[in-house]
Amino acid sequence: MTNKKLLVTGGAGFIGGNFIHYILNKYPDYEVFNLDLLTYAGDLSKHRHIEHESNYHFIQADIADRSTIMEIFKTNRFDYIAHFAAESHVDRSITDPEVFIRTNVMGTQVLLDAARRYGVAKFVHVSTDEVYGELDFDPHIFFTENTPIQPNSPYSASKASSDLLVRAYHETYGLPMNITRCSNNYGPYHFPEKLIPLTISRVLSNWTIPVYGNGKNIRDWLHVQDHCAAIDLVLHQGDNGEVYNVGGHNERTNLEVVKTIIRILGRSEDLIEFVTDRLGHDKRYAIDPSKLINLGWQPAYSFETGIAQTIQWYVENQEWWTRLVIAAQLNKQ
């Protein structure tokens, strides 16, 4: 597996950026192309240590810009596509659904057309467990790859739509592909609007921490490095046309997550502020990753080890997230 060209869309984002680091470390002969529009959540500073490497290339482009994407594919002739680029924040999808449709649905279609026209060995579409809807609080029930798709937010509906497009291009045109659906990720370089980095940054700043509703909503937490290892395995060994769920069996209520971070940082739970619940807030997500485990994947992080490592990273890299928090506040003014 040498001299392969890999296109990573959304490589300036959280998961895509970590995936680029993972791939370049594991496959030094790969040529990696990072395609990103650099919207509010895109940040290239995470790639400063590789930006001058001869096998890393950054391309600023909109995945929904058909003519530009076609020219990029024509020029570079990629072997693999790892498609992370997406609008992903549920709250933002509730206030502005249209941008999610444009990027997540139309952008994915453009990439599929380009992959079909110029040929790829594998198109891996990185999706989310949110396309399955919600589970009740029965701890014996999990999402499987056969769970019906029932999205409940504009964000998850846009991701479900893109999943169906990827499947259709496989069934209709024979495009080699896999779809991965992951649980909630956490780890280094996570944009500080999501629960874990938001909580860490606010605790370190001694600010109140907003918790939706009663905080009893449950999520299954997956360290981003375990997710990267899963996508790597699916990219190279996944059975063509298959869907793989990626989850860590690390279910926690949102309130438990917040209290864990507060405890590790030695602060008071008085920082917690319960706020009006999110519209359509799904009760619980939980994934059965048996199919992926049978392919050869095992998570390396427990939630306890992963959250401690993540908190330490945010403590040691306060300049990185402080800059993003300030920029976000300025954009709201």
UniProtKB/TrEMBL annotation:
The keyword Iron-sulfur does not apply. Its cofactor is NAD(+). Its EC number is 4.2.1.46. Residues 7-310 form the NAD(P)-binding domain. Keywords: Lyase, NAD. GO terms for molecular function: dTDP-glucose 4,6-dehydratase activity. It is an enzyme of class 4 (lyase). It catalyses: dTDP-alpha-D-glucose = dTDP-4-dehydro-6-deoxy-alpha-D-glucose + H2O. Belongs to the NAD(P)-dependent epimerase/dehydratase family. dTDP-glucose dehydratase subfamily. This is dTDP-glucose 4,6-dehydratase. It comes from Paenibacillus filicis.
